[in-house]
Amino acid sequence: MNFSDLQPIPNNPALFIKKEKTLIIADLHIGIEKQLQEFGVNAYSQTNFMRDRVITLFNKYYPKRIFLLGDIKHNIPFSTFTEKKDVKDFLENLLTFCEVHIIPGNHDGNINKISPSDVIIHGSEGFVFKNIGLVHGHRWPNSEIMHCKFLIIGHTHPSIMLEDRLGYKNFESCWLKGDITKKSLRIKYPDSKKIKFVVIPAFNPLCGGIAANVDGFAGPFGNIIVINNSEVFLLDGSSLGKIQDLKSHH
To answer: 151: domain range?
Structure first.
C-alpha cells in the first residue's frame, strides 16, 4: 500500500482506503452539546447529522469496514442516559452496513459496556491494519504501531487559523500530513524508520480544534512530529503549504 492510497474524502472529515474498502473517521464526541449548554452555548445534538453523513458515505463508497479513531462519546467520567442511548443507536446503525471497529480515545471510558456486542474494540494503544497504524493519539502507541509505514491519528482536532488584512481571524478544520523522522523516533523507538502520518479532522462539527499554526499539536505525538514541516489541506482539498509558511498569519 502507498501513501497515495490514503485518500481524504472531499468536503468530509473522513478518509477512505479504496484498495481495502475501509472508511476511517475520528472524534464523534457524541453528547458534547450537554457540556456546551452548561457553558451557555445553544447547541443541538449532531448525532443524527453525523449518522446521516456516514450513511451517505456508505452508500457512495460501500466500505467493508469502518474504523472509529476514538472519542466516540464525550462526557467523562460519567455518561448521561441520552448519551449512552445515542452512542448505542449510532453504532447499531453503522453495523447494518459493515464491520465496525473502535480504537478507544481518552473520552471512551466504558465504551465496551455501551457498544453493541458486534462492535470490535481494540486496545487504546492503537491497532495495526495492513501496514497502517491506527491510533486515537492521546497516549504513546506500542512499538508495533511505530514500525508501520503509515500512521493515522485523531485526537488533536486539527484546524488552521487564517487572518485577513483587517485582522479578522478565521479557523478552518484541516488535514495534516507529514513525516515522523527516524531521529525523533529514537526518543522511544530506537529501531523505527521514517513514518508518514495523516491527522484526521474531528467528525463532529461542534468540536473545537487545535490551530496547528498557533498551538502546535495535542498529545504525545507532538513530541516526535516536526509540526512546522507538516502540510496543511482544507476539507475541500485545497493545499495551504506547510505550517511554517502559515505562521505569519497569527
So the answer is: 3-249
Burial annotation 125-153 (CB, 10 A radius, 16+ → b, else e): bbbebeebbbbbbbbbbbeebbbbebbbb
Beta partners for residue 199, in sequence order: 153, 176
The answer to whether the beta carbons of residues 3 and 15 sit under 8 Å apart is: no
Beta sheet of 6-8, edge-to-edge order = 6-8, 15-17, 22-25, 65-68, 99-102, 120-121
Say how far apart CA 16 and CA 227 lie, in whole Å. Answer: 24
The amino acid occupying position 125 is E
Residues in the chain: 250
pTM, two decimal places:
0.91
- In the chain, DSSP finds a helix count (H) and a strand count (E) of 7, 15
Please write the tens of the pLDDT for every residue from 157-212: 999 998 888 878 889 999 999 988 666 565 565 555 678 999 999 999 988 888 99
